[in-house]
């Protein structure tokens, strides 16, 4: 029996990466590509498409006949409007961080109070903005696709399929597994994609692509997810109470919970993961404030001189600028970075410990809101490399803290592809 391999591709903000894994989850091959400039301006859709096929071409030829399934993750709320007759991009891509305040009053008027869609950058705001600005003739054959939906469509050719992680900011209710009535009753509801669980087979790969790259006849293309969910999957925090703290420029936590928790006051919302929930929140503290004060070299040297078993007496709230989101929601909150001791070692100790206290308060808030209590923490992001900080966090959290072995979203997408066993009743791409 031939070896079966699973391909995951991550489309991030600045580039894309593939990861190819075997049935035991071992990494067989990976490659990263920066997005190419198309002409004088970056044409995002063309750039993503070109990158996708460059990555497929990067896969070693000897592995390609063994690729059983493919999944792709993309940035949350990155949206395109597509003509389903011709496949042309009618509008967009509207990127994850683009805001459409013109559409927000309409969305707020139809959605429940404090719903996830009630922010200018939500997918629904992007859809409503496009709908209000375009004539009825442009609308007739239009369909909404998320970034990963569109990239997957290039491989399977079936219109209008998405996953419930990407569709959360569109207004899909993952608990009811349906669009709510307030959304399904809108005049643009025909533009909404059908929703499946992440990692669900959609269709076999298109024949022309299969022949060009040497994939097998039964290679399945399946639904994807968002980049942050894929990164969580990569860490393999697979049981309730396991969590991932990402220590990048900001501090973000994601906790696997038996209970769904949503509270817009703190930017807390839940993604569905099979029969569980991934509850998350993000603070503005993190690596950005550290880099304002210390160089990377200083961080390494000074961290090595800190005794992580000792508690720092400094009570700080390290923020890079005014404003905090979680676990305190206060847009006017000012950074608290004083008093600064003469010793840089003591100062860094105080900052690292203060960030750890914010992390602990975040997990405490999720528990107060009803989420499963955290039992074990895996760490991703640049801060995961700092062993001293990990030991400080273990002491402050009172929990085991590990560096996640895998944090690449592409690896998580490959694990998602592994869920999609080939099926005889799925469609061949057109």
TrEMBL record:
<dbReference type="GO" id="GO:0019150">
    <property type="term" value="F:D-ribulokinase activity"/>
</dbReference>
<dbReference type="GO" id="GO:0005829">
    <property type="term" value="C:cytosol"/>
</dbReference>
<dbReference type="GO" id="GO:0004856">
    <property type="term" value="F:D-xylulokinase activity"/>
</dbReference>
<dbReference type="Pfam" id="PF02782">
    <property type="entry name" value="FGGY_C"/>
</dbReference>
<dbReference type="GO" id="GO:0005997">
    <property type="term" value="P:xylulose metabolic process"/>
</dbReference>
<dbReference type="InterPro" id="IPR018485">
    <property type="entry name" value="FGGY_C"/>
</dbReference>
<feature type="domain" description="Carbohydrate kinase FGGY C-terminal">
    <location>
        <begin position="273"/>
        <end position="421"/>
    </location>
</feature>
<comment type="similarity">
    <text>Belongs to the FGGY kinase family.</text>
</comment>
<keyword id="KW-0067">ATP-binding</keyword>
<protein>
    <recommendedName>
        <fullName>D-ribulose kinase</fullName>
        <ecNumber>2.7.1.47</ecNumber>
    </recommendedName>
</protein>
<dbReference type="InterPro" id="IPR043129">
    <property type="entry name" value="ATPase_NBD"/>
</dbReference>
<keyword id="KW-0547">Nucleotide-binding</keyword>
<keyword id="KW-0418">Kinase</keyword>
<keyword id="KW-0808">Transferase</keyword>
<dbReference type="GO" id="GO:0005524">
    <property type="term" value="F:ATP binding"/>
</dbReference>
């Amino acid at each position: 029996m031939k070896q079966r391999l699973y391909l995951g591709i991550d489309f991030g903000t600045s580039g894309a990466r593939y990861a190819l894994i075997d049935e035991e989850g071992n990494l067989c091959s990976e490659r990263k590509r920066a997005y190419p400039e198309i002409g004088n301006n970056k044409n995002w859709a063309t750039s993503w498409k070109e990158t996708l096929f460059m990555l497929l071409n990067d896969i070693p030829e000897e592995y390609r006949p063994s690729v059983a399934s493919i999944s792709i993750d993309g940035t949350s709320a990155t949206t395109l409007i597509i003509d389903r007759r011709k496949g042309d991009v009618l509008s967009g891509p509207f990127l994850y961080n683009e805001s459409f305040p013109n559409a927000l009053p309409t969305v707020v008027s139809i959605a429940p109070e404090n719903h996830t869609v009630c922010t200018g950058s939500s997918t629904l705001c992007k859809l409503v903005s496009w709908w209000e600005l375009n004539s009825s003739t442009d609308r007739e054959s239009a369909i909404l696709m998320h970034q990963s939906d569109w990239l997957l469509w290039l491989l399977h050719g079936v219109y209008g399929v998405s996953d419930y992680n990407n569709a959360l900011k569109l207004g899909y209710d993952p608990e009811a597994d349906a669009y709510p009535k307030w959304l399904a009753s809108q005049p643009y509801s025909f533009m909404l994609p059908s929703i499946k669980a992440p990692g669900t087979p959609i269709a076999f790969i298109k024949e022309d692509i299969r022949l060009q790259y040497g994939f097998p006849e039964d290679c399945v293309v399946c639904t994807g997810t968002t980049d942050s969910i894929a990164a969580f999957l990569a860490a393999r925090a697979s049981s309730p109470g396991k969590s991932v703290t990402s220590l990048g420029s900001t501090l973000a936590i994601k906790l696997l919970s038996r209970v769904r928790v949503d509270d817009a006051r703190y930017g807390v919302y839940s993604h569905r993961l099979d029969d569980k929930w991934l509850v998350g929140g993000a603070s503005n503290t993190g690596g950005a404030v550290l880099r304002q004060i210390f160089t990377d070299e200083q961080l390494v040297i000074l961290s090595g001189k800190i005794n992580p078993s000792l508690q720092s007496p400094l009570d700080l709230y390290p923020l890079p600028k005014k404003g905090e989101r979680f676990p305190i929601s206060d847009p006017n909150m000012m950074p608290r970075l004083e008093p600064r001791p003469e010793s840089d070692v003591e100062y860094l100790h105080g900052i690292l410990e203060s960030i750890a206290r914010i992390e602990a308060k975040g997990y405490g808030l999720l528990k107060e809101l009803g989420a499963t209590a955290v039992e074990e923490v895996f760490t991703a992001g640049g801060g995961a490399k700092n062993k001293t900080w990990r030991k400080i966090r273990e002491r402050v959290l009172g929990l085991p803290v590990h560096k996640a072995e895998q944090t690449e979203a592409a690896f998580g997408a490959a694990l998602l592809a592994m869920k999609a066993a080939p099926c005889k009743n799925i469609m061949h791409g057109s």
